[in-house]
Specification:
It is found in: Cytoplasm. This protein has about 375 residues and is α+β, with helices and mostly antiparallel strands. It is about 35% helix and about 25% strand. The strands form five sheets. Strands 5-6-4-7-8-9 form a six-stranded mixed β-sheet, sandwiched between helices. Strands 11-12-17-15-14-18 form a six-stranded antiparallel barrel. The structure holds guanosine-5'-triphosphate and magnesium ion.
């Protein structure tokens, strides 16, 4: 339906119905009755002649009211300190997962992720929580293989600190530079970890110089990037690395409001047999609880079961916590933001609208491709 009828327009701008219908006929070349709808742009043109500005009343949709709620939540936040989110990035095989395994071992978590990976290559974005002296840190492990650019970008976008891992025997490689670019684009703090210093062919000086050339400078050279020399194999430098993380995190004064409804980002999601959609979410603000209704991109559902990074069932998850959860009706896109909403009907409505919109865009994309093909053929 068109936004305004002839009757309402006539009342709003104080123009006689007959005069208005005549004007409309002249403008649009079509016939109007008192009950016809008028395009907003046309109504606007006529109103302007009368020096009246028409303002379209914003329709209150489930989506716009969710936006309002989110803005409200942000404004009323009762900020408390939260754990830092640290993303490990770098070229393939430079030792990201090994460093994280080391860190987790050092803090009492049995682990050996590298040995469980297919071909020793990380292919998913993984998240771990580590605790030291009552303070926890969330680590995200990203793949270094060149095929996984998106996952590195995603890691950089949700993180507070990026640890750029560079093998001292290889030096700076293409995905090292790419990772640095992602971290810079996301405007996050950077720590350089020069790894594999135990290897006989490690060339720490050369690696350092390559990094300086990329404008990553330690404080001794007037910069502010901590450089740590380490080995995931011997454990050298691991404490120092964690100290650097702690210092940067302290300076950043990271906060969130755990009393609010949970929100954050989907890191990964897939369909698993009869268990349904399994999604890894990073809670960035508020608390996500079992039973909550979640809207995630164009998908929705109730949190039926939720697990921590070690696969243990949990009831709730506060800020900076990665969780796996089951309950979404479809597989969301990684990168999709999620929000806890009041009820399942709202979630269903918004998800449905988003799906409609998405399928429309898909159709246009499809047509565009076909047109190009046609042109090629001619
Ligand atoms: P992707 O996730 O595939 O990008 O690799 P990654 O950066 O996670 O490297 P990963 O931890 O899988 O390590 C690659 C190889 O390097 C493994 O064989 C590790 O055992 C070895 N490695 C990692 N760190 C060190 C180190 O400090 N010293 C030595 N000597 N070997 C290491
Ligand atoms: Mg790895």
């Amino acid at each position: 339906a068109l936004p305004i009828t002839v009757r309402t327009l006539s009342e709003t701008i104080g123009m006689k119905v007959g005069e208005l219908i005549l004007k409309l006929k002249n403008l649009t070349n079509s016939l109007f009755t008192i009950n016809s709808g008028v395009e907003f742009e046309v109504a606007e043109m006529i109103a302007i002649e009368k020096k009246i500005e028409l303002v379209a009343k914003k329709q209150v949709t489930a989506e716009s009211s969710l936006e309002a709620t989110i803005t409200e939540r942000k404004a009323s936040a009762n900020q408390l300190p939260r754990p830092p989110i640290v993303t490990i990035m770098g070229h393939v095989d430079h030792g990201k997962t090994s460093l994280l395994d080391r860190i987790r071992q050092q803090y009492g978590l049995s682990s050996d992720v590298v040995s469980t990976e297919a071909g020793g290559i990380t292919q998913v974005l993984r998240a771990w929580r580590v605790e030291k002296g009552g303070k926890s840190t969330t680590f995200l492990d990203t793949p270094g293989h060149e095929a996984f650019t998106k996952m590195r970008a995603r890691g950089a976008n949700v993180t507070d600190i990026a640890v750029i891992v560079v093998s001292a025997s290889d030096g700076v490689m293409p995905q090292t530079e790419e990772a640095i670019a992602h971290a810079r684009a996301a405007d996050v703090d950077i720590i350089v970890a020069i790894n594999k210093v135990d290897l006989p062919d490690a060339n720490i000086d050369k690696t350092r110089r390559q990094l300086y050339q990329l404008n990553l400078l330690p404080d001794t050279m007037g910069g502010d990037v901590p450089f740590v020399e380490c080995s995931a194999k011997t454990g050298k430098g691991i404490d120092e690395l964690l100290d650097s993380v702690a210092v940067l995190a302290e300076l950043a004064e990271l906060t969130a409001d755990p009393t609010q409804a949970g929100s954050g980002t989907c890191l990964e999601a897939y369909l698993e047999g009869d268990r349904g959609v399994i999604a890894t979410l990073l809670v960035q603000n508020g608390t996500l609880s079992k039973g909550d209704v979640v809207l995630c991109g164009a998908t929705f559902g109730r949190v039926r079961a939720m697990y921590d990074d070690l696969g243990r069932p949990i009831e709730e998850a506060g800020p900076s916590t990665p969780v796996k959860f089951i309950g979404l009706d479809e597989v969301p896109d990684a990168d999709d933001p999620f929000y806890v909403v009041d009820n399942i009907a709202t979630a269903r409505e918004i998800a449905g609208k988003r799906r409609e919109r998405r399928s429309e865009t898909d159709r246009f994309k499809f047509q565009a491709v076909n047109l190009d093909k046609l042109k090629e053929q001619n």
